[in-house]
Amino acid sequence: MFDLICGLQTFMDSIEGSGIDFIHNLSRDMFLNVGVEYRNSDRFWERVESRRAISLKDKKAERFSAENLHKDIDIAAHFGSSTPATDQYLLHFAPGWDKNRHSIPVVLVHGAGLDATSYTDLYAMGFQGLQQQLVEMGYRVFAVTFSHLHGDNFYQAEQLADALVRIKEITKAPQVDIIAHSKGGLATRLYLAGKSSTSYRGDVRRYIMLGVPNMGLDYPFRNPLLNYLVYTSGSNGVMAWDKILSMGTLVNTSDRAIYSDGCFPGQAQMLYRWDDEYPLDLMQQDWWTTYFGGFGFVSHSRGIDAAIKDGDSLIAKMDKWGIAPDIEFSILSGNNSKFNTFPGESSGPSDGVVFVASALHSDGLQNAGAKLRDKSVLKVNHMELLFARRVGRWLDAQLRD
Fold first, then answer.
1. Is residue 173 helix, strand or coil?
2. What is the dihedral of CA 156, 158, 159, 160, to 10 degrees?
3. Burial 188-227 (b: 16+ CB within 10 A, else e)
4. Terminus-to-terminus CA distance in the chain, angstroms?
5. CB of 361 within 8 A of CB of 217?
6. DSSP H helical segments within 108-223, as ranges?
7. pLDDT beneath 50, residues of the chain
8. 176 with 168: CB under 8 angstroms?
9. DSSP E strands: which ranges in 85-161?
10. What's residue 28's pLDDT?
């Protein structure tokens, strides 16, 4: 066992010291953003407005780390900073927003570590995103970019609520349809449940979820070695480890970790324990200490229970609230757990990040009388939900009157 541990650390040191290109390529193949600057994203939008949510004016500023700054050059320029103020957000107008044949506006809400560009050209990989597909189908499309890529979901709910006011003002439409990917679904749901500072105004007709962890996730705690990949590559991802043994030195990584003193304030709010449903992988390094807390051989974690507490057990609370009864909602989950040829979450059926059972969990959404329109599964992974043609066709079926 000691030889195995020493060998693992030697391997980790070697890839960190001399194999960084391999790590970066692996990270990109797994759709982990490794800090590549994106240029000319404005070409996908007719215009972009920089706006402020008045309700957030006096809220505590959210912290950024070097890894989760806004790297999209155009987006940072619209904000005036790569670390925008808490009350800032961007509203993007797609071509045809004022004249396409479907009159009900469609609002795209991005997930963690992403921005509106994720719906157009994810990580500059050349995919035609859902924005372009929806525009081609005749929809009037808008999108938001939140101030913090991993921001507090209550703050993001306020930014979204403010964006809806602006969209209704310029389109004269009484209601909109919202499409939310991953973490963006939590901010959306808080507004629709009337749990954000701004009360729900009855301005949403349909709410469509793509890979939203409706019953939470435990991904960074269940997959310890992902933490090393995120750390080594400099990816814009959150870690369960707040200390890591690197090149023989124990490094404090609290600012990149999921806990309350880190720079990923909305991530702990997504956590929920799935270890009773899907057993942990005992072959992963530091599996016990990562999930339950303590020092392992190459890391330290405070454990998932501490992180859930930091997130105020939000998933369990949301499951009791429900969303407004006048809303129709649809759920789509992927069930392809591989990113290109690399495995993602594989301890249970998943899209590589979110368990299918979590994404499809709809009981809580219906607690106040909201109506389930459709619940489907497609053979796509968590990131393909943003550009796969079959997803676009499914969306068209959900949006059409």
1. coil
2. 90
3. bbbbbbebbebebeebbbbbbbbbbbbbbbbbbbbbbbbb
4. 62
5. no
6. 130-136, 153-171, 184-192, 219-222
7. 1-18
8. yes
9. 88-93, 106-109, 141-146
10. 56
- Tokens standing for residue 201: 């105004």
Domains of the chain from N-terminus onward: 19-401 (3.40.50.1820)
The dihedrals phi and psi of 91, each to the nearest 5 degrees, come to: -115, 120
Chain segment 74-133, per-residue pLDDT in tens = 999 999 999 999 999 999 999 999 999 999 999 999 999 999 999 999 888 888 999 999
70 three-class SS:
coil
Q: pLDDT, tens digit, for every residue of 310-339? A: 999 999 999 999 999 999 999 999 999 998
Quickly list DSSP for 177-193. EEEEETTHHHHHHHHHT
pLDDT-above-90 percentage for the chain? 84
Q: What is the pLDDT of residue 34?
A: 55
Check if the beta carbon of residue 36 is closer than 8 Å to that of residue 135: no
Say which residue the tokens 């890894």 belong to.
67
Residue type (1 letter), 214: N
Structure tokens at 369: 């009388």
Distance of CA 370 to the CA centre of its chain: 24
* CA dist., res. 286 & res. 291, Å (int): 9
Q: Is the pTM above the cut of 0.90?
A: yes
Q: Which residues of 24-37 are buried (b: 16+ CB within 10 A; e: fewer)?
A: bebbbebbbbbbee
Mean of the per-residue pLDDT values of the chain:
92
Amino acid at residue number 315: I
